[in-house]
């Protein structure tokens, strides 16, 4: 690997580390802001789909699908803005699913990839952290969303940041 192959790990690590520190210092605000931003994003997507459906030629089946999906997203976005706790729980479940997929993927790559043992171990550890985080969020979504999601994400991001920086440093450079 060359010097450029190290940079993605180091950049990922620094960004994760910064995110983790920010989230740990403002956990309550983080949960509320993320929940509301996600609800606004869903609302905007719903409005876009409704607009696209109204512009589609009459009789096009995708126009009807866009309209139905758009209306559902608008309703979901409005509910999410009105009730950020529900939005936070939904986000917690989505984060859990993504963490599980990412974690099992990292573990699989660590177990099957060729390369030095040190970087594979670090990748496996970051995968294990992702699986643990995902499992906690699946089991306790309300607790995670309302009280501890920011702390979990903060600690997780800091740990992933440190592991990614270490992996970038340990990745051997090509001669």
- State the helix count: 6
The end-to-end span amounts to: 8 Å
* Structure summary, number of beta strands: 0
Coarse structural class: mainly alpha
**Most strands sheet:** none
Task: Report the portion of residues in β strands.
Answer: under 5%
Transmembrane segments: 9-27, 33-55, 62-82, 88-109, 121-140, 146-166
Keywords: Membrane, Transmembrane, Transmembrane helix
Organism: Methanocalculus taiwanensis
InterPro entries: Acid_resist_chaperone_HdeD, DUF308_memb
Describe the structure.
By secondary structure, the protein is mainly α. It has 6 helices and no strands. The N and C termini lie close together (8 Å). The mean pLDDT is 84. InterPro entries: Acid_resist_chaperone_HdeD, DUF308_memb. This is DUF308 domain-containing protein. Keywords: Membrane, Transmembrane, Transmembrane helix.
Question: Secondary-structure map with pairings?
Answer:
Layout: H1 3-25, H2 27-55, H3 61-82, H4 84-112, H5 117-139, H6 141-170
Helix pairs in contact: 1-6, 2-3, 2-4, 2-6, 3-4, 4-5, 4-6, 5-6
Organism: Methanocalculus taiwanensis
Pfam families: DUF308
Transmembrane segments: 9-27, 33-55, 62-82, 88-109, 121-140, 146-166
């Amino acid at each position: 690997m060359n010097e450029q192959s190290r940079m993605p790990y180091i950049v990922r690590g620094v960004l994760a580390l910064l995110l983790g520190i920010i989230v740990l210092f403002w956990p309550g605000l983080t949960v509320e802001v993320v929940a509301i931003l996600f609800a606004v994003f869903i609302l905007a997507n719903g409005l876009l789909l409704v607009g696209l459906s109204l512009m589609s030629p009459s009789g096009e089946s995708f126009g009807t699908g866009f309209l139905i999906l758009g209306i559902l997203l608008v309703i979901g976005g409005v509910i999410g803005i009105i009730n950020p706790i529900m939005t936070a729980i939904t986000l917690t479940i989505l984060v859990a699913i993504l963490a599980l997929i990412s974690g099992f993927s990292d573990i699989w790559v660590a177990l099957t990839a060729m390369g030095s043992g040190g970087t594979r171990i670090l990748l496996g550890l970051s995968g294990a952290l992702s699986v643990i985080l995902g499992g906690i969020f699946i089991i306790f979504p309300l607790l995670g969303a309302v009280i501890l999601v920011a702390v979990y994400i903060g600690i997780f991001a800091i740990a992933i940041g440190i592991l990614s920086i270490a992996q970038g440093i340990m990745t051997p450079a090509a001669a």
